[in-house]
Amino acid sequence: MLLRKLHFSKIVIHLIFIALSLACIVPLLLVVSISFTGEQSLMLNGYHFWPQEFSTAAYKYVFSGASSILNAYGVTIFVTVVGTLLHLLITSMLSYSLTRPEVTHRKALTFFVYLPVLFNGGLVPQYILLTRILHLKDTIWVLIIVYLVSTVNVLIMKNFFRTIPDSLIESARIDGSGEIRTFFKIALPLSKPSLATIGLFVAIAYWNDWMTASLYIESPKLRPLQYLLQSLMNNIGYLQANAQASQSMESALGMLPSEGARMATCVLAIGPIILLYPLLQKYFEKGLTIGAVKE
Amino acid sequence: MKAITKPSNHGKSYRALRSARRQAPFYFMMAPGLIFITILFYIPMAGVIIAFKDYNPRDGIFGSPWMDPLFKNFEFFFKSEAARTVTFNTLFYNLLEAITVTLCALALAILLSEVKNKVVSATYKGSILLPTFLSWIVIQYILFSMLSVDRGIVNNVITGNGGEAVYWYSEPSYWRIIMPIAYLWKNVGYYSVLYVAAIAGINPDYYEAAQLDGASNWQRIKHITLPLLKPTIIVLSLLWVGKLFNGGLGDWNGFYTLPNDSGALYPATDVIDTLVFRSLKKLNDYGMASAVGLYQSVVGFFLVLISNYIIKKKDPDSALF
Amino acid sequence: MKKFLVLLLSVTMLSALLAGCGQKKDAGSTNDPAADPAKEEMTELNFYMMNSPVNDFDRVMKKANEIIGKEINAKLNLILVDSSTYAEKMNLMINSGDDWDLSFTANWGGINFFENAAKGAYADLTDLIPKYAPQTYARIPEGLWEGVKVDGKIYALVNYQQWGTAKREGFKFRSDLVEETGFDWKSLKGKPTIEVLEKMGPFLGDSLAKHKDMIGFETSSLESSSLYAGNPLLWNMEAVGDTSIPGWINLDQPDKVINQFETEEFAKYTEIMRDWFEKGYVRKDGATVKDTSPDRKAAKFVAEKTGSWPDSIDHPGNSDASNMSMTKSAGNAPAVTVSTTRTMIPAGAASTAAIAINSESKHIEKALQLVELLNTNDELYKLISLGEEGVDYKYDENGKFTMIEGKYNFNFNEWQIGQSYSPNFNRANYDKNKDGEIQKETQKIVLEADKTAEISPVTGFVFDPTPVKTQVANCASVTSEIIPALSSGSIDPAKALPEFLKRLKTAGVDDIIKEKQAQYDAWKANK
C-alpha cells in the first residue's frame, strides 16, 4: 500500500516535469522549424511545427550577410568566459567577506552594495564615465566591465555563504590557515552549486548583451555575435518605419528574406549557449560534501 | 584596507588593532568589488540630478541650469491621464509575478530534489532553464508565430476545428493572462535552479537525522528545507520590493516587446516604464526620463526600508542590512 | 594566500596587457596612412552613419581611402552603427561631448536634427559650404538649403538624391484587377483624398468578391504609417515642425495652425475606414500588424498609397509606378499609379537625409572637403555604395545590374553618405539597357519638377517643444495608442473619435497648438 502510494507520487512528479519540459522545448522547436521553412511558404501557409517546404535560404542569407560571423563568435566567447570568471571571483570574495562576523561594518557595507539596485543615473553619465573617464570605448573591456559586479548577485551569493557552518571556518583557522586561504580552500569548493548557478546567469547576460556593443563598439572586429545578428535584423523594422526617407530603402525591403532569417539568427545566437548547461551540470550537484571537507 | 588606514573608531587600543588586523584580509578580498561598485554605480549616480535640470551638453550635468520650477520634469508623468492605469498595471503584474514565480519555483525546486536519477533530473532542469536563455525579442517572435491572426498556430488549430479565428492582438483582456504567463515561463526556471542550488547547500546531516527520526517527506520539507530556504526567499523578496514600481520588477522589456506595438493592448500591457519610453521616444528628453526613474527609485527605497525594518524586528538574521 | 596573490596579479597584468593592446591598436589605426608620409600629416575623419554590418568592408574602405588620401590628404573612418540604436548613440555622443567629425543626420527617427542644431551641437556651415564644398552647394535647388537652416544658419549638407525631393502623393492599384473590374482609375487624378477613397471603395469590393484571399488596402499598427497622421500632403496639409506633434496647417490657409485631428477630413476618413473594416476591405487585425511586408511580398494588396511618381498617366513605363511595393524584383503584382496631390517640396524634405559636422571638430574644413569629394567624385561614391565592378557587382548580358552574392553590400544605405544625384546620372546602379534609360528619363522629370515645385510655406521654421514638452509627451502616448485603431477602422469613430479628442485635450493639445502658433507667427514676422 505504502509502496504503491510512493510510486504514484513519483509518477505524478515525472508527469509534471515532462509536461513542463515540453512547454519549454516545443516553442524553441517552432523557431527551428520556421528558420528552415521557405519564405513563400511562411507567407501562404503560416507557421508550423514542421517545415511545410524545407529551405536553408535563411541561413545562407545570414551567413552571406555577415561574413565576420566567426570572428563575432570569438569575441562573444572571450567576453563571456573572461567576464564570467572575473565576475564570479569579484562577487564571491565580496559576498563571502560580507558574511564574516569579523567585518564590523558589514551591515553598512551591505547597504552600500544594495543602494545601486535602486538608484542609477541613466545612460548619459554612464556614457561619459565609460568613454571619457575610463576611455574604454571601442575596446573589448567595455563589454566586460558593464557586468563585472551585480549587486543582486552579491546579495544572493551572500546567502549561500551563510549556510557554511562557522565551525568549519573556525577549525581551519585553528589549523593555521589564513582567511584568504580558507576562502579559496574551504568556502569556495563548498559553494560550487551556487557558483555554477550564478555563473550560468552571468554567462547568459554576457552572451545576450548587444546593447553595450551597439553603443560603445565601433570597429567591426570587436563586434560580438548578438550585435551582428540583431543588427542584421533590425534594419528591416527600421526601414519599414522610415521607408519614406528613401526609395532605395523601399527596394531594399523587397529583397530581405525577413522571417526565416530572423529565426535563423535566433537559432545561431542561442545554439552554443544552450550547451553551457550540460557542461556545468556536474557542478550543480553537491560537489564536496561537508563531511569530506572536515576530514 | 580602509580598516588599516583608519583604525581610530575604537581608539588606539590593542583590541582595535587586533580587530583591524583580523579584518584586513576581508577588506582585501572586498576591495575589487567595492571599487568597481563605486566606479560603475556610484559615480554615474550623480546623474540623478538631471531630473531637476534643464540639461544641455554644453554645460554638462552639473553646469546645466536648474529647472524652473524645480519639479517641472516630474509634471509630465503625474499630469498624464494614463499615470493611474500604468501604476495599477505595474503593481498588478509585479505582485502577480513575485507570487507566482516564487511559489512555482519553490515547488519545482523541491520536486526536483525528489528526483533522484541524476540524468533525468539534469534533463528536467536543463529544459525548464531554456526560456531563461531567450531574449524578449525571440520570445516575441515565438508568441507571434503562435498568436498571429492568419498564420499563427493557435488560430490554425481553432479554425481547423471549425472555430472562429481569435484576434489575440486586439483584445486587451487576454493579455492580463498572457503577460504573467510569459514572465513566469521565462523566469521560473532561473529561480527554481537558484533554489535547487540553495537546497544543495543544505547540510545533509540534517536530513540524515530527520530520516533516523522517521520524518515523512512533507515533514522534512516543512521543517528543514523551507526554513533553510527562508533567507534566500527573503532576500529575493526584498530585492523585488525595491522594484515594485518598476515594470516587470525591473525587466520591463517584455511589456514593451511582446504586445508588438499594438495600441489596442496598451490599456492592459502598459507599465510605467513602457509609457515613459513611448512618450519620450521622440523628444529625447533625459530630464523627464530620469525624473520618472527617480520617482520609482524613491518609492522603492522607502518600501525597502520599511520591509527591512519589519523583518529586522521579527527575524534579525534575515534582514538585508 | 600566495595562490590568490598570483591569481590577482596575473589578472591585473593580463588586463593591463590587453588594455595596452587595445590602445596600441587605436594609435596604430590613427596613423596608418596608405599615402606617403612626406606630406603634411594626414587627417583622420570619423563619419558615423547607420548601417548593418557590411561584408568585405575593410577591402573597399582601403580602396576608397587611397582615393581620399590622394585627393584631400585625409582618411575616412566610416563607423557603422546599428540602425535601431543610431539615434540613441548619436544623441549620447552629443550629450556627453564625445568626439566625432561627421554624422548622418535627419529630422526623423529620433535623430533630432533641428533640436541638435539649435543646441549648438552641429557646426555652422553657412559661410564655409560655398568655400569648401562649392559643387555640393551649387548643384541642388537653392530652396533646399532653407530646409536645413536654424535661425538663418545652415547646419547640414543636404544629401540630394537622384529621385528628387518634391513630393506628390497618390495611389496604386493592381492593374490586372483594374482591367477585370473596369475601374476608372484615371479619373482620380488630382482629386481630394476623401473623394478618391469614396470612389475606391466599390473597386475594392468588386475585386475582393472575385479574389477572396486578397486584402483591399494596407493598414498598420505604426502611427507613422497611418494614411492620415503620416501623410499631411495627401490631405492638402503640412506639418508645422515634427509631423507627429499635433499642429498642422491647411495649405490653402497657411497662416493658422490647427489640430489636425479636429478636422472634417479626419472625421470623414475614420468613417470610411470603419466602413471598409466592416465590409472586410482591410485586415481585421490591421491596427495590430506592425510588419506588413509579408502581405506586400505575397502580392495581397488590391490598392495602396504611394509616394512614387511620375504616375502611369504622365509617364507610362516608370517601373516604380508599375509594380506594387516590394514586388519589383518578384514581378508578381503589376500596378497602375495615379497621383492625386499637388507637387510640393515639404518643409522636412531637405532634412530627410543630410550630413552634419560636429561643432567641436578640429577638422571642420577637411570634413567639408570630404563631403565635396564624396559628392563629386563618382568613382569614390560608387566604390563605397556598390563596391568594385566585377568583384562585387556586374552587369549581365542584358545590361541588368546584379550584385554578386556574399560580396560587398552596403545594404542600400548610400543615401546617407552623400548626394546620389549627379547631372549626368552616373552615380547610381542604373541598368545598362532600355530599363535603365527609362529610369533616367523618369528621374529627369522629377528633378526638373524640383526646380519649379512650390516650396512649403513652413520651410525653415523650427518648432522648439521645450515650453510644452510635458504636453508633447502626453499627447504622444495618446496618439500612439489610438491613431492606428482609428486608421484601420477597428474602433467605431462615432464613439471613439470624440473620446480621442477629449483625451488629447486633457493631455494639453491646445497648449501645443497655441505654442506652435506663437512661434510660427514670430518666425514669419522675422522672415
From TrEMBL, chain A:
It is found in: Cell membrane. CDD domains: TM_PBP2. GO terms for cellular component: plasma membrane. It comes from the Bacteria. Coiled coil: none annotated. It is a multi-pass membrane protein. Keywords: Cell membrane, Membrane, Transmembrane, Transmembrane helix, Transport. It holds the Pfam family BPD_transp_1. SUPFAM superfamilies: MetI-like (SSF161098). One of its GO terms (biological process) is transmembrane transport. Its main location: membrane. The chain crosses the membrane at residues 12-36, 72-96, 108-128, 140-161, 182-207, 261-280. Residues 73-280 form the ABC transmembrane type-1 domain. PANTHER family: ABC TRANSPORTER PERMEASE PROTEIN MG189-RELATED-RELATED, POLYGALACTURONAN_RHAMNOGALACTURONAN TRANSPORT SYSTEM PERMEASE PROTEIN YTCP. Belongs to the binding-protein-dependent transport system permease family. This is Carbohydrate ABC transporter permease. The lineage of its organism: Bacteria, Bacillati, Bacillota, Bacilli, Bacillales.
UniProtKB/TrEMBL annotation, chain B:
The chain crosses the membrane at residues 26-52, 91-112, 124-144, 188-207, 228-245, 286-311. Keywords: Cell membrane, Membrane, Transmembrane, Transmembrane helix, Transport. Residues 87-307 form the ABC transmembrane type-1 domain. GO terms for biological process: transmembrane transport. GO terms for cellular component: plasma membrane. Gene3D superfamilies: MetI-like. The keyword Nucleotide-binding does not apply. It comes from the Bacteria. PROSITE patterns: ABC_TM1. It is found in: Cell membrane. Pfam families: BPD_transp_1. Its main location: membrane. It is a multi-pass membrane protein. Belongs to the binding-protein-dependent transport system permease family. This is ABC transporter permease subunit. It comes from Paenibacillus mangrovi.
TrEMBL record, chain C:
Residues 1-19 form the signal peptide. InterPro entries: Bact_solute-bd_prot1, DUF3502. Residues 457-525 form the DUF3502 domain. Pfam families: DUF3502. Keywords: Signal. It comes from the Bacteria. The keyword Ribonucleoprotein does not apply. This is ABC transporter substrate-binding protein. It comes from Paenibacillus mangrovi. The lineage of its organism: Bacteria, Bacillati, Bacillota, Bacilli, Bacillales.
